[in-house]
Amino acid sequence: MALAILLGWYAATTVFLFSLKDETRPADAAIVLGAAVVRDRPSAVFRERINHAIQLYQTGMVNRLIFTGGVGNRDELAEAEVGRNYAIARGVDPADILLEVTSTSTYENLGNAQMVAQQNELETFLIVSTPNHMRRALAIADDLHMEAYSSPTRSIRWINNVTRTYSYLREVVAYSVYLLNLS
Q1: What is the 3-state secondary structure (H, E, C) of the chain?
Q2: What is the pTM of this model?
Q3: pLDDT tens digits, residue range 115-165?
Q4: How far apart are CA 29 and CA 146, in angstroms?
Q5: Which domains does the chain have, with CATH numbers?
């Protein structure tokens, strides 16, 4: 029981402290981690991830965008395709967009994006997601031996404090499970 409490405390602290980090720097590409879509539109959370990646692209921090995410329940388009369509509608050159359309988890997002990147000779990455998600995402990238840096979106507007707290606790649990799977 004491080990479970210690792990939970460690994960909660680590997720929170890492959410404050922003390692944005020039890189070959931004990997945008997928999130929910509603029909053919990005959810509010996904939209802010995409907007952040577009800003990185427009300011020259990255030359390419890699959208990740497969087809979710009851969706017609993959999350990555929705991300691409949204970015193109906002002026991103389609030639600068790469897709990974089969993943259903953060591990798959990054592993599959890594294969896409290797095929396109891309070596350095900014991982784009929500702040709470960054600790686990960067741990996975590190385990995949990717040169990746945290570039969290700061424009998330949570519906309410319950939603914000749920997101944080969900990520604490997910990171704890990830740590346990490594042992």
Answers
A1: CHHHHHHHHHHHHHHHHHHCCCCCCCCCEEEECCCCEECCEECHHHHHHHHHHHHHHHCCCCCEEEEECCCCCCCCCCHHHHHHHHHHHCCCCHHHEEEECCCCCHHHHHHHHHHHHHHCCCCEEEEECCHHHHHHHHHHHHHCCCEEEECCCCCCCCCCHHHHHHHHHHHHHHHHHHHHHHC
A2: 0.92
A3: 999 999 999 999 999 999 999 999 999 999 999 999 999 877 666 778 788
A4: 12
A5: 2-182 (3.40.50.620)
Which tokens is 99 given?
A: 């897709």
Express each pLDDT in 82-122 by its tens digit. Answer: 999 999 999 999 999 999 999 999 999 999 999 999 999 99
Closest CA to 129 of 106, 147, 150, 152: 152
